[in-house]
Amino acid sequence: xxxxxxxxxxxxxxxxxxxxxxxxxxxxxxxxxxxxxxxxxxxxxxxxxxxxxxxxxxxxxxxxxxxxxxxxxxxxxxxxxxxxxxxxxxxxxxxxxxxxxxxxxxxxxxxxxxxxxxxxxxxxxxxxxxxxxxxxxxxxxxxxxxxxxxxxxxxxxxxxxxxxxxxxxxxxxxxxxxxxxxxxxxxxxxxxxxxxxxxxxxxx
Length: 204
Ligand SMILES: Cc1cc2nc3c(=O)[nH]c(=O)nc-3n(C[C@H](O)[C@H](O)[C@H](O)COP(=O)(O)O)c2cc1C
Hints:
The protein is of the alpha+beta class. 34% of the residues lie in helices and 14% in strands. A four-stranded antiparallel beta sheet has the order 1-2-4-3.
């Protein structure tokens, strides 16, 4: 992609260097740091200033793995319905075989061995919540990057409600998980995915 942007500053650098990270070191980020990152999430704009987000922060290594494996099973079953093609598609998505295959994905196919998983919920009756949560999530990931941490948005995390461990998160019935984000110190440096061109149309 031809870069027309020539200005560089810490914000732009953080935006351009954030990557979805799927391999983590064992180190646990500071609780205060996690709180600061979630505070940045809460600075996101939200429709009618509803601030629909709530964060459930999971740091229990064993529980993360258990949920991860069960989500993989649930998601796989869901994809199996369309037949063989669907199975391949599911496996590819879950294990990211198209990119780097990491052995740890077998033990933690969904959360990639991250020490922290944040489940973001919103009230079920808020039609703008998916957009608000998307903005909130980007703030979280950029703030994390600026503090030396890495992350990955994990859409599969929403299937946690289909697992036996959902009650352990103590999420009330009027909320639903819209997205999860893994957080930790990255242990890989993936290449930047080439961004597609021809996306900007000046119409006047
Ligand atoms: C809504 C959403 C859901 C995603 N779900 C997953 C997921 O379940 N598993 C995963 O490994 N990556 C997931 N990703 C990460 C994307 O694959 C990644 O952002 C994309 O490949 C571009 O890479 P980059 O973030 O490094 O630029 C998700 C991203 C978004 C925005």
